[in-house]
Structures are given as C-alpha cells and as structure tokens.
Amino acid sequence: MTADAFTALLPFLVLSAAAVAVMLAIAIRRSFRLIFWLTVGGLLASLSTLPHALAVAPLRVTDLLLVDAYGLFFHALLLLAALAVALLCLAYFRRRENENEEIFVLLLTSTLGALLLVSSAHLAMFFLGLEVLTISLFPMIAYSVRASRPLEAGIKYLMLSGLASSFLMFGMALVYGDLGGLSFEQIGASGAALEQKPLALAGMFLILAAIGFKLSLVPFHLWTPDVYQGAPAPVTAFLATVSKASVFALLLRFFTTVHAERSETFLCVLGLLAVVSILAGNLLALLQDSLKRLLAYSSIGHMGYLLVGFVAAGLLRRDLQAETIAFYLAAYTLTSLAAFGAISAISDDARESDRLSDYAGLFWRSPWLAAVLTLSLLSLAGIPLTVGFVGKFYVFAAGVQAETWPLVATVVVGSGIGIYYYLRVVLAMIQPADAGHRLALHPAAGTALAVTALLVLAAGLFPQLLIDAAANTPHSPTTADSPHQAAASPAASR
Amino acid sequence: MILLWLILIPLIGGLLSLPAGHWRDRAPGWVALAALAVDAVLVLTQFADTGAAPQTAWLAQIDWAWIPRFGIRFHLALDGLSLLLIALTVFLGFAAVLCSWTEIRERQGFFHFNLLWTLAGVIGVFLALDLFLFFFFWEVMLIPMYLLIGIWGHENRAYAAMKFFIFTQVSGLLMLIAILALVFLHYQTTRTLSFDYFELLEADLYPGAARWIMLGFFVAFTVKLPAIPFHTWLPDAHTQAPTGGSVILAGVLLKTGAYGLLRFVVPLFPGAAQDFAPIAMALGAVSILYAAKLAFAQSDIKRLIAYTSVSHMGFVLLGVFAGNAAALQGAVMTMLAHGVSAAALFMVAGALQERLHTRDMDKMGGLWTLAPRIGAITLFFSVAALGMPGLGNFVGEFLVLLGSFRVDTAITAFAALGLILAPVYALYVIQRAFHGPASPREVRDFGLREMGVMLFLVAATAWMGLHPQSMLAYTDATVNGLTRTLAQRGT
Question: How distant, in Å, are the alpha carbons of B308, B361, B393, B417, B435 from that of B431?
Fold first, then answer.
C-alpha cells in the first residue's frame, strides 16, 4: 500500500479506530460523558483528515474503494450530521438509567458504513457498506428496549432490510452472470445498452428495488412511518439524514458509472418512482397527527424531488447532475437535522413528544425551539431565506432546462400539498398558550440546533459557498461521456 | 446604498421590537414608528433629490454579485413608479402601527416584528430588478403576513391564513417556473445565464414560448391582485386579519400584483401581452362588476370592503392591459388612491369591531348619532371609493376608462357599469351601519390618535384628486417607456 493510498483511507481508518477505542473505553469505565467526548473526538479527527485525503484524490484504493472529491463532500456532510446526532443523543439519553454508552459505538460504526457506501466502486463494497450501516442501525432503532414501539420498529426494519438485502444480492448475481464483472467500471465498460442484456437489466431493477427500500421510495416505503415514529428521536434524525444521503450518493455514483441512464426504460422507471413518491408521500402526510410520521411521509416526497433532479439533470450534463444531487442532499440533511433535532430536544428517553398537540403553543413556551422548528419546516417547504429553497430551485432549474414538464408539474403539486401540512404544524405552534410553562433545553441539544439552524439560514441567504463545494464534485473516472454531453444547449438536442 | 437601507431599516426595526416587547408594553410600537420614520426620511430625501419630475427613468441603483453560479445578482433599482409605491408603503406602515395601538395587546413585540418584515419584503419587491431576487422578496413577505393573520386574526384565522399562503405560494411557484423558462431560453440564444431584468428585456422569444411564460407571470400576479377567478383567498384573509394586517394587505400587498404586471409582464412580453389583452381586460371588467355585486350581498363589513378591493383592482387590470399612456397612468393612480382609501375603510371597520365586537352590519345601525366622527370619516372614504370627482379614486378610474375606451369600446362600456354599482354598495354601508334607529349604547368616538391618522389619509386622498399631476409626473418616464416598448415590439 502506497502512502497516498494510506492518506486516502485515513478518514475510514480514524473512524474505525475511534469505534474500537470507544468500545474499549466502555469496557474499562462506563461514563456517559467520557464516551460522548471520545466519540466527538473521533468524528472530529476523521473530519480533520478529509483535506489530506482531498489532496491525493481522486485515487483508486484497491478494487473496492474510490476516494474522490464527490465522495469526500459527502464524507464531510455525513460526519457533521453524525456529530449533531451525537450531541442530540447526549441530551436525549441523559436520564436513562441502564448502560447507555453503546449508542455511541453504534453511531460510529454506522457512520463508517455510510462513508464506505459513498466511496464504494465495487458491488462487494456496496454490499458491505450497506450492511455495516444497516446492521448498526437495528440496535440503534430498538435502543429504548423496554418500550414496545422502538422494539417493534427495530424488528420491522430488521425484517424488511433482510428482504432488501436479498433483493440486492440476487440483483448483483444477475448482473455478474450477464456482464461478468462486479466493479462499477467493469460493468460500465461492458459497453452495450442494458436493453440488450435482459438479465443484467433485471438485476439492475432488483438493485434499484433494494435502494428504493433504503430511500423509502414508493412502493418500497411501507416501513418508513413506523420506524421513524418508533425509533428514538436522535436515531430518527440519523436515519433520515446519514442513511438516506449516503444511499442516494451511492445511487448516483453507481447508476452513472454503469451508464444506466443510457437506458430509456430505466429513466422512465426512475421518473415514475419520483412521481408516485411525491404524490403518495405528500398526500399521506396530510393525514398524520404525529410529527415524526408526518416528517417520514414528507421525506418520501423529498426523495421524489431528488429523483426528479436526478433524472432531469441527468438528461442535461453529468456535472450538473452531481451538483444538483450534492446540493439538495446537503440542504435536506441540514434541514432534517434541525427538524428532528427539535423533536429530540423536547423529548427524552422516557417520553417521545411527537403528537401535534405536544407542540401547541410552543412559540410562547419555548420561542427559540419553535423558531428552529419553523425554520426547518419552511426549509422543507422550500420557502426563500432557507437552504431548502435553493435546493428546490436546483430541481426546478434542472427540470425546466431539460423540459421534463410532467415531472416539474408533479413537483409543483407536491409542494402545494406540502405547504398545507407543514403549516399545520406551525399553526399548532402559534396557538395561544401560557408562557409560564417553559421548556428547559439541554445545552448539547441547544448547540446542535443552533448550529444547524444557522447553517440552514446562512446557506439559504448566501448559497454560493455551498454551491462551490457541491459543484467541485465531478465524480467517477469517466466524466466526459454523458450521452447528452455533445449537445451544449441541452433542450435543443431532444 | 439608500435602496439597501430602505429594506434593512424595517428588518432591523423588526428585530429590535422583539426584545422591546419584553422590556415594556408599548415599546415595540414606538420602535416600529421610529424605524418607519427613518425610512420616511430616506424616501423624502429621495423625493427631494429627484425634484418635481424625474429626468431619467432610473433614479438610483445598486448591483452586486450574489450567486454567480446562476448569474444571480443583488440588483435593486428605483424609478418613479417604485418611489411612489414605496412612499405609499411607508405611509400606510404608520397607519397600520397606529391603528393597532390599542387593538393588539398580546405579544406586541412579535406583532411589530411581523409587520415590519412584511413591509421590508414589500419594499424589496418594489425595488428588485433581478428576477430571482424579486421572487425571493415575493415569497419573503408571505411568511410574516401569514403569522399576522394566523396569530392575531379573528375567529376563523387558521383557515384564512392557510388559504392565503397556499394560493400565493403555488402561484408563486408557477412564476418561478416561468422565470426559469425565460432565463434558460435566453441562455440558449445568448449563452449567458442571467436573471437580470435589463438583460432579459432583450430576450428574443418565439411567440409560443412567450405566451406560456407570460401566462405563468400573469397567474402569479392576478392571484395577488386579485382578479376573478383567483380572488377567493382575499375575502377570507382580509376579513380574518387584524386591522393592521388588513391595512397592509389591502393597501400595499395587493399592489405588488399590479406592480408585477406593470414592471414584468408588459415589458418582458409585449407581444404576448397584447395578444392576451382582450382576455385580461375582460377579466378586469368582470372583476369590477362581479365583485361589486358580491360586495353588495355581504353583511360582514370587512368582507364587503374586501370585495370592493377586488372590484377596484379590476380597473387596474383593465388599465394595464389597455396599454396606452392614459390607461397606464390611471392604473397607477388607482393603485395609490385605492391603497389609501381601502386602508382607511379597513381601519374604520377595525375600530368598529374593537368597539362593538362585531363586524355584522345588521347589528350596527344608528352609529352616526353615537359616533359622528367615525361616521363622517366613513362617509368621506365611501364617497372616495365610489369615485367622486375631486378625490384620488376618481382620477384613476376616469383615466383607465378614458384609455381603455380607445382600445375596446364594448369592454369599457361594460366596465363603466361598475361606476353605478359602486355608489350602491358604498352608500349601503352608510345606510345600514350609520343611519337608522340607534340602539341605546355607548360607542367611543375616534380619539386624537385615530383622527390624526384619518385626517392624514383624507388629505392624501384629496391631494391625489385635486393635484394628480404631482404624482403622474413621477410615473411619466416609466409609462412612456412602457408605451414605447409596446409600440416597438408589440406587434
């Protein structure tokens, strides 16, 4: 192994070492605070190695991993999200009586899985990363093991994840059988369009189904509301951000490296998934009285918006596609962290506050918390001043430029419905209530919320910095061969 | 820089009024007044710099890079039209703060925060000359308005606030798509990605595309204006909003729709706008008559005034799409005059509700003897609203009809019938609420604060009616630019 390869692997190595160190520390001395600080230290150390890795990127490390700017952008995003989740965990589990330090080990291993997923360049690493992420997630979801809801949610996620994994395996087997390769590049280099390879195409669809499950795209979404609602709030925040963002980042890398976009069928299916996800997610969110379920359905809709950006920008230019996805995912991650962070901050291990009635009059009881939650809801709804608006702007810009009018129309309809249920929450919060009963905010949760909310606002007002970061993420070895690349004015080429 | 401060000062004032609310009960009101006073000084200096009639179309500009990735700039500019509308905004801002002085007792800090941020958003809309920035302000003014209705509104506030937000937001998204389509079509021909107004004025669109894009803008602006058939949010929002909110909604927010038509729809798509003019003018005429008829059928006094707003905005729509100098000047005059008179009428309605705890005119009656000052003021503004010569509204409506008569005789004749319906509903208010037998009760008449505000509004209305040229001089350059565009590129 060369020194460069070692540098490129540093983020993973540091994170793995941190997980081991935390585990050993727990064996020596159980102290919630100590373990928390060790975890934060590990995440920060991993974060600090990213610039070094960027200096040697892009670099292929073994057959399995590709360390490039695109992956490192997501590494930074995922590590920051994990950091916020760690802060939320500290506040949420502080009153729990039993051994509760293990949540941080699981947090580190699942983050490691997410990082591996983002950087994988080979189906084996894809599978490995996904499993490391998922298997760490089961115990996190069922962490409040005495309560029935988390347990039920954990088992549900376990069963359905198992199913999704078997789909994934079968799909990989079919692809391998037809194309004779497991690395993304090999699959992509086999040349011919997928339509002429029925087995490989079937395999691709099976892999898509597994990814659809992780992203909770309709019709693979059934687990989402139950698991979102059942899991402890910080874990829901992790599930909604780290798990989704890493899988979507992989989706883009995988499907563009293997040139799935050359297949019309494939694009149609993705477009269709986007439309049904947007409509079903937003319509079902209308019916919810639990904020966590509401946000679960809204996340289904958001994955649909992302897919619209994926398809539309993919028809235009590959670098634009990567930029759109990277920006939207960053926006979505920040916003969701703020939203679930707010839920987490007013809940704890003993009691989850997720009914809408729990939020009645929050504006007067705890103005800052209510302001953060309102900001994140407005960002989810895509209202200016927030980063969510710029994300939606990207989707609209791609959709309009590619002239995919049905998809654009669906996004408008979805956003219109979305406003209704996001505002319902705001309406609940502005109901009159006596200001006497104030909520105490744990400093850790307060810090996490303040930082994410500020970022949502700052990136909404001055998005150029985040755009630059997202735009400098041309990924994968073959950047210049999108089928539509030749046409400089994309719409005219169609 | 003065342009940036015009927006920043209400924003800062809003932020300051939050802690002021914790400090002392009336403090947020004073903070708001101070912020508006500073803004008023800025507006007056701008008037003084300009002189009696502007020599150039654009009086001040700032143009900074904002999001270079998309060619988006922070571009503000001021011409006579925006100057007049900003003056109206600040003027009515004072009125809104003062009429809420006793009505709003709870959470005053947050109330004034929302009020000032709405005003800042509106001023931004009147100044923005980058289409992205325009959309940004267009949406930003919604949220505080939504909170104003949702928190301090009357019994059905949740429904009204939600309806208001969804109508404007969805139509706003259509406008965003239209903006993007325009920008990318421009990009295809010139290879420069820009949201700048002046750049996009040069865009060369084929007629089919121009028609669709124009429709996207048109829908967004007519929802805000509002015109039939997009008006249904307005009676709810106006009726449920607190008085200060109604004043801002009717006086200023509706004008952003009209401003959008004047500033963007006509200059950007002169050809498509002219092709579309018969339909738009017919919509305007139908709005005038249909809303007047609906107004007559209301027993809720705020709802009645809300429908008269729709009716008067029909004249604006008619005038904008008639497209000649007289009609355009008339549309601007109607915007200003209606802003003042509708704000005044909503303040009267708010004052009545504060005193009688009802907006139902069937439960009023005989108020003239109990509160003669309220009666006199109501009579004055009712007469102004019905278009009495010598007052501002008359000048506006007369010019609109004069201009559109040359374009389409049938529609104009039809719209002129509105001048018959207006006295009916205006006098109906007076008759039902102020005449008739008085019920034996105490009604506090207007005090010094309320009379002061009202007399200012009376003076403004009379000034606009007696010396309209002082206003028209400011919009001459803008209007001439519009007519020139229409003549050159229209057909």
Answer: 17, 10, 22, 22, 5
B188 to chain A: which residues are within 8 Å by CB? 489, 491-492
Closest in B139, B147, B176 to A396, CB measured: B176
pLDDT higher than threshold 60 for residue A323: yes
Does a structural domain hold residue A116? no
Chain segment A324-367, per-residue pLDDT in tens: 999 999 999 999 999 999 999 888 777 788 888 888 888 888 88
Question: In which domain, by residue range, is B95 found?
Answer: 1-489
Q: Does the pLDDT of residue A412 top 90, yes or no?
A: yes
Distances from the Cα of B291 to the Cαs of A350, B397, B401, in angstroms? 57, 16, 18
Domain membership of residue A300 (yes or no) is: yes
Containing structural domain, residue A280: 263-472
**Per residue in B393-418, is it b (16+ CB within 10 Å) or e — as a string?**
bbbbbbbbbbbbbebbeebbebbbeb
Are A415 and B169 an interchain contact pair (Cβ–Cβ within 8 Å)?
Answer: yes
Nearest to B138 by CA among B149, B148, B153, B127: B127
Residue A193 located in a structural domain: no
Per-residue pLDDT at A436 = 59
Partner-chain contact A416 B166, CB within 8 Å: yes
- Tell me the chain A residues in contact with residue B64 when contact means C-beta distances shorter than 8 Å: none
Total number of domains in chain B: 1
ipTM for the whole complex: 0.90
Judge whether B36 and B456 are in contact, CB under 8 Å: no
Instruction: Report pLDDT digits (tens) over B393-449.
Output: 999 999 999 999 998 899 999 999 988 888 888 888 888 888 888 776 778 888 888
Q: Where are the beta strands (DSSP E) in B336-394?
A: none
Query: How far, in Å, are A312, A375, A388, B213, B458 from residue A453 at the CA level?
Result: 29, 7, 12, 35, 46
> % helix / strand / coil in chain A, to the nearest 5?
75, 5, 20
Q: How far apart are CA A266 and CA A465, in angstroms?
A: 34
Burial label, B52 (beta-carbon count in 10 A; 0-12, 13-18, 19+):
exposed
* Model confidence at A402: pLDDT above 60: yes
- Is residue A142 domain-resident? no
Whole-number Cα distances in Å, A305 to A299, A379, A381, B50, B211: 10, 14, 12, 48, 27
Report the percent of chain B where pLDDT is more than 90.
60
Q: Which residues pair with A289 in a beta bridge?
A: none
Which residues of chain B are within 8 Å of residue A424 when distances are taken between CB atoms?
162
Looking at per-residue confidence, does A125 or A144 come out higher? A125
Summarize pLDDT for A278-296 with one digit per residue, the tens: 999 999 999 999 999 999 9
**pLDDT at B343 exceeding the cut of 90:** yes
Show the tokens assigned to B440: 């034996």
Q: Residues B292, B425: contact at Cβ < 8 Å? A: yes
Q: For residue A179, what are its two tokens?
A: 């194309």
Cross-chain CB nearest to A430 (options B68, B151, B180): B151
Question: Could you tell me the pTM of the whole model?
Answer: 0.92
Taking the C-alpha atoms of residue A85 and residue A423, their distance in angstroms, rounded to an integer, is 26
Question: Number of structural domains, chain A?
Answer: 1
Question: Average pLDDT of B448-472?
Answer: 91
Please name the member of B66, B140, B187 whose beta carbon is closest to the beta carbon of A385: B140
